[in-house]
Design goal:
It is a single chain. The chain is an all-alpha fold. Helix content is 68%, strand content 0%. The longest helix has 29 residues.
């Protein structure tokens, strides 16, 4: 990314924020795509989440698959993860010399994502967590937290990380 020891350009930081948001949302989306496929209803979880967010209700589970709700929620999901990822990207970049920073990042991300899930459940659709399952949601938040932290470790060269991180969508700009 940037050759400066402690600061990234605003463009590099914006790229890191979007990249981390994409990683976090993709990790959870992939987990639920796998779980939904094995249960016989691919895309059921994003449709359920979309129904809760956009319609304020949980579907019966026997109706048709609504791709508009799944796609809409996927976009909202990416935006939420990018916002959370942005806050933690700034922390990671500014605190990169802090001992045990990866552990702090995983824990902070996990707690933040879990608080967001609890808030969504309480304010938008009570019983949402029960409908999807607490264990898969906790596991998804944990995997997303680890994935985003792994990106931060590489992008901001935290600790001994010195692997190259792509800075363009095609190839590497270095």
């Amino acid at each position: 990314m940037s050759t400066q020891p402690n600061r990234l350009s605003s463009g590099d930081l914006a790229y890191a924020i979007a990249y981390a948001g994409a990683i976090g949302s993709a990790v959870i989306a992939t987990l639920f795509l796998i779980l939904d496929t094995f249960s016989g209803r691919p895309l059921d979880t994003p449709m359920l989440m979309g129904s809760a967010v956009f319609l304020g209700e949980l579907p019966s589970g026997t109706g048709p698959l609504r791709l508009d709700l799944a796609a809409g929620y996927s976009l909202v999901h990416f935006v939420m993860f990018t916002a959370v990822g942005g806050v933690f990207a700034v922390f990671a970049q500014r605190l990169r010399g802090l001992p045990k920073l990866p552990t702090v990042l995983v824990a902070g991300l996990f707690l933040t994502l879990s608080a967001g899930l609890i808030t969504l459940d309480a304010l938008v659709a009570p019983d949402l967590v029960a409908a999807i399952g607490l264990a898969p949601m906790v596991l998804g938040n944990l995997f997303a937290s680890v994935g985003m932290t792994a990106f931060y470790v590489q992008a901001f060269e935290i600790g001994d990380a010195r692997l190259s991180v792509p800075t363009t969508l095609i190839g590497d700009s270095r």
